Amino acid sequence: MTETFNALFSPGSVAIIGASDNPNKVGGRPIHYMRKFGYAGEVFPVNPGRTTIQGYRAYPTLGDIGKTPDAVVIAVSGDATMEQVRACADAGVKAAVIMASGFAETGQEGRTRQQEMVDVARAGGMRLVGPNAQGTANFAKGAVLNFSTMFMEVAPADGPIAIISQSGAASVMPYALLRQAGLGVRYLVATGNDADLDACAMTAAVAEDPAIKLILLYLESVSDPAALARAAAIARSRGASIVAIKAGRSQHGARAAASHTGALVGNDAAIDAFFARIGIWRAADIGELVRAVPLYLQGRAPGQGRTVVMSHSGAVGVMAADLAERHDLSLTELESATLESLGAILPDFGTASNPLDMTAALMGKGDMFPRVLDALGGDPQADMVMIGIPVAGPGYDVEALARDAAASSSRFGKPLVVSAPQQAVRDVFVQHGVPTFVTEGDAIAALAQYAAHARLEASAQTPEFSNNPLSLEGSGLQDEARSLALLAQAGVPAVPNRICATADEAVAAFSALGCGSVVVKGCAAEVPHKSEHGLVHLRLADPTAVEQAARDCLHKLRELGVQSPRVVVAAMVAGRHEFALGVSVDPVLGPLVMIGEGGTLLELRKDIVSLLAPFSQADVRAACGRLRIAPLFQGYRDMPALDLDALAAAAVALGDWAVQHRETLKSVDINPLMVQAAGEGVVAVDAVVELAGA
Amino acid sequence: MTETFNALFSPGSVAIIGASDNPNKVGGRPIHYMRKFGYAGEVFPVNPGRTTIQGYRAYPTLGDIGKTPDAVVIAVSGDATMEQVRACADAGVKAAVIMASGFAETGQEGRTRQQEMVDVARAGGMRLVGPNAQGTANFAKGAVLNFSTMFMEVAPADGPIAIISQSGAASVMPYALLRQAGLGVRYLVATGNDADLDACAMTAAVAEDPAIKLILLYLESVSDPAALARAAAIARSRGASIVAIKAGRSQHGARAAASHTGALVGNDAAIDAFFARIGIWRAADIGELVRAVPLYLQGRAPGQGRTVVMSHSGAVGVMAADLAERHDLSLTELESATLESLGAILPDFGTASNPLDMTAALMGKGDMFPRVLDALGGDPQADMVMIGIPVAGPGYDVEALARDAAASSSRFGKPLVVSAPQQAVRDVFVQHGVPTFVTEGDAIAALAQYAAHARLEASAQTPEFSNNPLSLEGSGLQDEARSLALLAQAGVPAVPNRICATADEAVAAFSALGCGSVVVKGCAAEVPHKSEHGLVHLRLADPTAVEQAARDCLHKLRELGVQSPRVVVAAMVAGRHEFALGVSVDPVLGPLVMIGEGGTLLELRKDIVSLLAPFSQADVRAACGRLRIAPLFQGYRDMPALDLDALAAAAVALGDWAVQHRETLKSVDINPLMVQAAGEGVVAVDAVVELAGA
Hints:
Two copies of one chain form a homodimer. Helices cover about 40% and strands about 20% of the residues of chain A. Chain A contains 24 helices and 30 strands. The longest helix of chain A is centred in the middle third of the chain and has 19 residues, at about 440-460. Chain A has five domains: about 1-135, NAD(P)-binding Rossmann-like Domain (Rossmann fold); about 160-165 and about 180-285, Rossmann fold (3-Layer(aba) Sandwich), CATH 3.40.50.261; about 295-460, Rossmann fold (3-Layer(aba) Sandwich), CATH 3.40.50; about 495-570, ATP-grasp fold, A domain (Dna Ligase, domain 1, 2-Layer Sandwich); about 575-690, ATP-grasp fold, B domain (D-amino Acid Aminotransferase, Chain A, domain 1, 2-Layer Sandwich), CATH 3.30.470.20. In chain A, helix 13 (about 315-325) packs parallel to helix 18 and helix 16 (about 400-410) crosses helix 17. The first copy, chain A, is of the alpha/beta class. Chains A and B meet through helix 5, helix 6, helix 9, helix 11 and helix 13 of A and helix 5, helix 6, helix 9, helix 12 and helix 14 of B. Chains A, B: InterPro entries: ATP_grasp_subdomain_1 (IPR013815), CoA-bd (IPR003781), NAD(P)-bd_dom_sf (IPR036291), Succ_CoA_lig_flav_dom (IPR032875), Succinyl-CoA_synth-like (IPR016102).
């Protein structure tokens, strides 16, 4: 870790400005916690009104301490904060936690004061956490620069988990759930307004700690995607994982997020694509955030995720199979040798297929259970094991079951989980280190997430954020001719076309294009929805028809108030299927490219995938495989296979071009993009490019 | 309840045949449980080898007891069961629980023995539970004719819940979760093989108990839909609810179906439709089965489900809003008067919209919190309240919060739930009777289910299963001409067409049809996929083209081995949009009608809804509103509104016809069904009807 993060997480000394003798005040609680949780460094309460605070000597001002503390907690009110930040920066403090609220979250004036505060700190070489931050904690050192009430109620313990959150509440909720489950948490950081050291930077910092196996994130905005990508890369390089909530998905959520942190909530699909690219699993809520934690901590490789379900109840097997399908977890086909072994071990072997119904062996008596586990452990088709124990009591040796299950998982290195509704049964398995769940639903969901996340991590990349964008001339919506020209420049095949100001020019264009049949369309940036105004004339095969159509369009455009009406004359292109290709440039994450079924019903059918640019043709092929109409690429019924290669090439070209021009490009809509049979290419038939500004 | 169910659930006396002195044997456990759980009737252990068993006098045979017990548990092995069933039936026993396995679940021979056993019982006027049953329990009476291990570990307590399950394991899993949460369960029934008194009949029986507010079901098959519909009607009439797992979703999905409709909807969709119709909520797993139980038990009306979320954390509000969108729960727009009141109560009112960010009030001090609850309680736009308490500790008066929350919910009669990760916080709310959840995710999911289930119950119907079906002549796949004729008979408008055996007949048909343009298609039941064999010739406008097309089709059909090749000559019909309409007849639940976007990509786009027949046009309109392409019915972009009335009329006619002919009809595929602009109707252009047999 850098000096800054060392100062925060392993400080030799901490001053608390605005210190209180009352451990239930914001300025009292960090002092209370540091004493209580074994902080071994020096603690300097700063308060002009007292000589001792909670048993520590107190100082009137920072200057009176006589040395410069590594880190400072500034727990005075918002108005008084700036003066203290200046004093700290002047004194050479490396990092400060600002707890006061009343900054960017209150509006423009607060934003300005917040930026001034950051500037003052940076000028003195000091870094800030907050403002409006609950603060940082490293429970390995008892360094608790954090005022959350939670540690009063749920005692900390060190462990291989870090929790980084922009929200105080969202930092302590997973903490409470993990601690109540007996799991240790090392870092707990709530960054508040993210004015300087933000949640992304914090994530990168804790990712470097070799003891950390799992980082849990709560974000309402991704303020620094490059830092988060770097954090993810560091974590991956060490075999550590990141699971994150990015809240504000819904409209309601987005609205509340804006008013809460003053942060901009980015396009949600861009977040999905970004997290997937850098190998972060996106959780829907706090429950999903913590659900699979025991699997991550154990760290056994999930292989291809092919799972064996076994139970002494057929019903558990049936439900687990339903749930596996719902969560896209594959139940494995066991090798026939394994099934034979199982048949030999279990005299009244219930069901000779997965899910395994194995009545007697799950009582834990004799050596049936370990022998079954050996058989499964040795089957290369079986990557993970779920054992459902719906009931146990007299007649069951749960201790033996737990011991054997733990031993098998350890010996074969395969993830193994247990689901059991009885707390007493789960307790025994937990004591043996076996991940346990209350229901089959949770167990299957956790296994599915763990396996899918491993696949995500294996294909993760670290995107570049450093190139210098090029500019595009113009602003706002571009007319069809310019749009098609820009796309052609980008490398997306566009339909041959001519822009014409008169009907005579249109007739000339018809013969110049030299194709049998053309389309004539009104062309004006002000009128993007041409067909709704009768501005599209299809299949014109002779000069008279072209002339009439051009006149009609020019007349209608004039009536719509267009000053310099023009028409586009373009070759008629029939395609095997209509696709759509588009770009939406996220201000933070860059261009998101959308690929999907096109046509007029695009927005109803919503059969689309999206990719954060830049990406490869292989990425496009994988994404297109998730479309409902994906079978068209292999040839469907009597239709030939479509040209996925050309589609992928066009999407990659569009994405690269959008990255290059991301500062001035806002969006691209190509619909339809005609996709032909394999080897015959794609053609953009209609397009609107939107540039920034105006 | 009937005499039979009284005998099982409130017996004056119970004999246990195969009684054991060992409380951990199948024949010992019911005796142990009845003594332990306060059964006040007589217990007669039957065992020729002992004089006393677990303190009760034992009898060598049933006949030695000297009176006829109301109910008997038969706990001898499978081979010895028949003899005991006969003895019980002869003695006039009203009901017996058969615990032995080795019957229908083992194959055909076992099925035969099982039926013999039922016949013997019925002949003597006795009813059976099982075989292969864990048995019945009424914990209000201590009448435990059940051998589950679970009651050794998790003690029972009476309560307003019944659990009915075909599986023993699936009966005790929800039991364990509910009892560990402090909730009482009155009935617990595991019916095993369902040979006589099945899970549906049991459900109807317990639904009649006025103390039962909620019935939890686990089914792997719906053996008696009429009984289940009756049970649901009884429950609804009393304001009780039913939540059910129907397991085996994935198996059904996997089974291959001959018809497109059958493959698309699967048999599982029939279960969904059936449960929805009779007002049963279908849960995905045991977790969902029990999740919303506290809301059902409290029984407060969810109104329109418009929910207020409040928290002292903005993050909780943001997450709850995301989750509400995911679960289709609407967050209400509060009345402006309410927002004004809130602003007056809360000086630093965080966010003046829902979700409410209300920092200070959620500490529970002063009267802010009850005043906020009063303001919400009085707002007619607010139907339900969720309070998120991510953290509490010193400075919080959780007791006051819980008291006020409970009082408000009771006073206004509105459902109110709390989510809190801290066990200690939840405990306080539970003590005050407030439904609590660990995460916002569970709280929102429970509220969403509770509100949606109430809507389902309000529109529930009790289907008729009693009419006498009519027969259709023929078997297997019908050719297009017969199929269209059958549909026309059903009341579905079909395209004008003629069936022709020669090219000359085709030409004659062309002029007879008198339309400008026709389609000529090969017609043979053996070749349902015409377009794949080049057997469809479109837009033929002159006799020569018709003749050529007919010759081509006849030739190709002959080459495909069709003995008597024919062609259909049909009017070309252009439609505004291609739909598909289909039927798949479920052997138990009857015809399921599928409606969706048609065309060659039907099975890829899967934009379909399904309804169990019979149904009304209003049902069709509601279902079609769930299609992705639903906006087409209102007019989309430059397209006129489509004829939803005609589509609904065709679907209702098809459904009614399918119900009438359900014994001989297997499936119907109509694709495309051309839907015209409103007022212009629908036309079936291509269809395949599949009849039973051959």
